[in-house]
Every structure is written in structure tokens, then in C-alpha cells.
User: Which sequence fits this backbone?
């Protein structure tokens, strides 16, 4: 999406191959994620837990926030300044995938109490925001041959 040539010192997929191949690779990896959640022997054996995992990954909220946040991010690239509130909104949206990952870990821990789930939810929000802020700083200040 950011059209970078390198990621962690290696050519990005759309540069190493082409844009259609990169899109197909992303589509295939997303389908693979759902297949793993449905069939992997390491996933919870309880069918309802697997359904919760799949539902969390496929969640409408996550896709709306992730796509919406990416759209705001792309729009902000063309603007000279943004407000702190619009930055927080933009940065928290792509972090929805990270938050979903943390929620999925909580689903795999059925004995986790409500306080533990709430702590993980706050952690997921915070780590998603931190990731996006770091990524945006690296877009401006980082060396794309070495970014993380």
C-alpha cells in the first residue's frame, strides 16, 4: 500500500514480482489464515472456539477499521499537517489486526477471567497504536534498507 521498494532490506513483493502477483499473494495468505484456524491440529479442539477465532479474524469491525485507517493514512501523505486527534484515529485503525490477534490469544485461554481479558484488550489497543506510530516515524526518518 505504501509503495515502498524495500522492507527489512529486501525487495517488496510488488517490486520483486509485480503488483498483480503481490495482490494474489495477499489474497492467498488471507485464505491460508482461515484454513489454519479451521483445520490446524494446534488450534483449540473445541469447535465453538475455532468459530470464535475465525469470527475474530474476519470481524467486520476489524476490516472497517483497518481499511478506513489505511485510507486515512494515504490521505495524510498528501497533507502537510494533521491534528493529534486525527493522527490517533488514523493510527488506531490499522492496529485492529494486532488487537484481533491479542483477542484470538485470549480465546485460546478459556480459563482467563474477565480482568485478564480486559487487560489483554487494553494491551492490544496500545501495541497496535505503538506499531502504527513507529511505522509512520520510520516512513519519514528510517532507512528502508534496515526498517523493522
Assistant:
Amino acid at each position: 500500500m505504501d509503495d515502498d521498494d524495500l522492507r527489512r532490506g529486501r525487495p517488496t513483493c510488488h517490486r520483486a514480482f509485480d503488483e498483480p502477483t503481490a495482490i494474489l499473494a495477499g489474497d492467498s495468505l488471507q485464505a491460508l489464515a482461515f484454513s489454519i484456524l479451521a483445520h490446524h491440529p494446534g488450534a483449540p479442539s473445541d469447535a465453538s472456539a475455532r468459530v470464535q477465532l475465525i469470527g475474530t479474524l474476519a470481524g467486520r469491525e476489524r476490516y472497517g477499521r483497518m481499511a478506513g485507517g489505511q485510507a486515512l493514512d494515504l490521505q495524510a501523505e498528501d497533507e502537510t499537517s494533521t491534528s493529534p486527534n486525527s493522527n490517533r484515529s488514523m493510527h488506531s485503525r490499522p492496529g485492529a489486526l494486532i488487537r484481533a490477534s491479542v483477542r484470538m490469544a485470549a480465546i485460546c485461554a478459556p480459563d482467563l477471567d474477565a480482568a485478564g481479558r480486559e487487560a489483554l484488550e487494553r494491551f492490544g489497543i496500545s501495541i497496535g497504536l505503538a506499531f502504527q506510530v513507529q511505522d509512520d516515524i520510520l516512513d519519514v526518518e528510517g532507512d528502508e534498507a534496515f526498517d523493522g
Remarks:
- Confidence is low (pLDDT under 50) at residues 88-92.
- The radius of gyration is 17 Å.
- The first helix runs from residue 13 to 16.
